[in-house]
Structures are given as structure tokens and as C-alpha cells.
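Researcher: Structure for this, please.
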Amino acid sequence: MPAAGAAVWALAPVLVFALFAAGLPVRRGSRAQRPPAAGARVVTLAAGQARASGLRWAPLRRARRRREAPALGLVLSAAPLVPLRRQYLAALQQAAAARAQLRAASQEYQRLQRLYAHGRNAALKAVQAAAAAEQAARANWNSARQAAALTLTAARQGWGPVVARWLGAARPPAAWAGIMGLRDYLVQITPPAGVAAPPRAYLRAEPGGGGRIAARLVSKFPSVNPRLQAPAYLYLAPAAHLAAGLSVTARLPLGAAQAGVVAPRAAVLYWRGRRWFFLRLGPRRFQLRRLARGVDVPGGVWLPAPQLAGRPVVVAGGEVLLSQLGAKPAGGGD
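Model: Predicted structure, C-alpha cell format:
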């Protein structure tokens, strides 16, 4: 027995090495120590080196995000709406004046008609003239009403039913006041084929300013995009960083929100034409991970990795860790 026990103890290091080489966990005390995943780049610093290198880290923030489809947009000028509103108001005034004339002409015709019927105290010629005046006043009233209706029809054909309703309101809503005051813009957005227009869209001006601009759906746009030959929709967006005639890119949210985390912008490193970050595994161990499916969001990069919520990532000194891997960080984007 003593000889057998000695043989087992002699083989123990070999067995541990074999288990480690096979990728099986080796327990030390009560914690299982697993080797890094295949292809993972882990940097282990000497004691005190992390502080001396100026490393700082921050937790990954939990965030939900919906998938988005890209779309093209065009900021429209509201100038053509001004004469339409003026025409509509003028037609309303003419209709009101014609209605007043019609009421007076109708009353006069009825008075003369009663007088003629009771004792012929009014001449037949006067009654006939009053009837003609009433018919002319009614024709003017109908013409003014039709002019107002045609103005609203032109607005519907050019801008859609909602904008036409704003234009024809006795007291236009705040959205109309914002458009007329250039505080808001109407944006024509053309979704990709098979994508329905969502209630919200997010715009980014192509010249590069302003970040994401939230826009809300107004209605379907009556005209197709001449370049894409596809149905378009009308959105209302704040005027900040927008101008009439400007081409914009839009992101259209799709489906349900997906759980994930947001890596701070300061955690992103550029190497080999791709984006990376360092995950802190322990006091002196850091793992380089690629932002393979990262999506830019305000404040950082969103990742579909909810299991990493709360884990610390390096936000300062990541270049030092890259140098430990023999890598040289790039100074630009992907």
C-alpha cells in the first residue's frame, strides 16, 4: 500500500497537467479555475502595475435596444404650405361674405314674395329680381366653399391627410406652428422594401452634426421618392441641425427591444481595423474582446451581451494593455 500511494502521488502532477491540457476545470480549494477561451487575449500585470499604468475602469451599463433598419430621408421645405394656407383663409373669408349676402338676399326675396302674394303690394319684377339676387348669392357661397375644399384637396394630394387637417384647422395645432416658425421640419423618409414605417425614427444629418434626432410619424407621403421609386412617409423632427433640402440618414426601429449593455465610448480601442475593449477579469488580469456586433448609441457602443452587465471595462490605459500584447493601437475608426 505505501508503494501504491507513493505512485499515485508521483502521478498527480501528470494528471493535473493532462486535465488542464484537455480543457477540463481544475479545482483549487472551492473555486474552479478555467483557462481562457480559445483565441482570447489575456494580459496579466505585475503587482502594482495597473495603478502605475493609470488604468481606470467602469461598469458596463445595462440597456435595451431595438433592431434598426437604415433608410434615406429628405428634409422638406414648408414654403409651399404658406400660399395654400393663405388661399384657404381667403376662401373662408369669401365664403363667409357670400353666406352673409345669401342670407340678406334670401330674406329680401322672401319679404317681397310675401308682399306679392298678399295684395300684390310688390311688383312681380321686383320679386323676380330678388330671386335672381338670391341665386347669385348662393352661387357665390358655393363657389367660395368649393375653393376652400379644393385648397384642402391640394394639401392632401401634396402633403397627406394630417398636414391638410393642420392647414384647415381654425386654430392650427402646435405642430403647424412649429413648422411655420421653422422650429420643426417635415422629413420625407423612404423605408427599405418590406419594412413598415414605425411611429418613431432617428435621423442623422449627413454633413456630420447633431447626433441622433428623434422624429415622429405624421402620415404616409402622397408621392414616391423619385430616386428609389418606393413609398415614402412623412415625419416631423425638431429643426436642430436640419435645413430644408438636406439629405439625412434614418434608422427605423424594428421589433421588440433586445437586452444588452453599453460600453463607454472611452473603452473602445481600434486595432487591426476593428474595435475592441478590455474586460477586467480580476485585480491584475484583463481580457481583450472584440466589439463584433457593437452598435453606436449615445454615450458609447451597445452590445447584445446582457450577461456582461455590471462587469468592469477599461476606460483609460487600454493602450498600455495592448502594448503588453505586442499590439499597436490605431488612431482612427474601423
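Researcher: Any notable elements?
Model: Residues 1-39 have pLDDT under 50 and may be disordered. DSSP finds seven helices and 16 strands in the chain.
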